[in-house]
Design a protein that fits this description.
241 residues, Serine Threonine Protein Phosphatase 5, Tetratricopeptide repeat, mainly alpha
Length: 241
């Protein structure tokens, strides 16, 4: 993450040391130094921000939210603080609490697609699916090369059983990034669910030819075997007739 934008007349040595420790993933050691920095200067948003990020990495999300909130009060024009507050709310399992922070982040930096994507995810987790789909669609239109938006929308459409629509989105991903092999697996699943077994086989095989050792490979192989068994059974029944 980028550093806090706001500048300060000085940065005490405890905060400097804490920043270095945090960059080396030594979060517990960094926390002690951030706390010492805060004792010296309680108005330094950077120390509260760093402290919040450390607690986030330690999965102590309520503490992270507490200190990031203080940082936001001291530096209310910083995108990163609100973005991280939203992420911590999501990680804590309170997506509806994340929404206002992502909105604030977007107001500060409307050109950054990450906060918009996370806003859509927060609405999705609140089961506000229509709103989430609208956000993903707007993001795709405004940032057409932001593949994460296509992936998130197609995943939600599949979750809602809208496989035909999802396959269109996945094909759009491949138009932009032909090497995005995960899309082949998704398209295969869509055709599989739509009962278009031959098309499903084609895309499953394409995926396996490119990603034979991925974590999805075993599932894909199982589905191919099931489809082949079903085809063989149908052929056998036709012969018997």
């Amino acid at each position: 993450m980028s550093s806090i934008v706001k500048t300060y007349p000085y940065k005490n040595s405890f905060c400097e040391k804490a920043d270095i420790l945090r960059s080396e993933n030594m979060y517990k050691e960094a926390i002690s130094n951030y706390l010492n920095a805060i004792l010296i200067d309680r108005e330094n948003a950077e120390s509260y921000y760093g402290l919040g990020i450390c607690y986030k990495h330690l999965k102590q999300y309520s503490k992270a939210i507490k200190y990031l909130t203080t940082a936001s009060e001291l530096n209310p024009e910083n995108y990163e603080i609100y973005f991280e507050l939203g992420i911590c709310h999501l990680l804590e399992g309170v997506p509806c609490g994340a929404i206002k922070n992502f909105i604030q982040a977007i107001q500060i930096n409307p050109d950054n697609p990450e906060a918009i994507l996370q806003l859509g995810i927060a609405h999705e987790l609140c089961e506000e699916y229509d709103l989430a789909l609208m956000i993903y669609q707007k993001l795709m239109e405004n940032s057409p090369k932001f593949i994460k938006a296509y992936e998130q929308k197609s995943t939600l459409l599949m979750k809602l059983g809208k496989y035909q629509e999802a396959s269109v989105i996945l094909h759009n991903i491949l138009k932009q990034e032909p090497d995005y092999y995960k899309a082949y697996a998704g398209i295969g699943v869509c055709f599989d669910k739509l009962g278009k077994r031959s098309n499903a086989q084609r895309y499953y095989r394409k995926y396996l030819s490119e990603e034979p050792f991925s974590h999805n490979a075993e599932f894909i192989k199982t589905r191919l075997d099931k489809i082949s068994e079903r085809k063989n059974l149908h052929s056998h029944l036709k012969i018997c007739k």
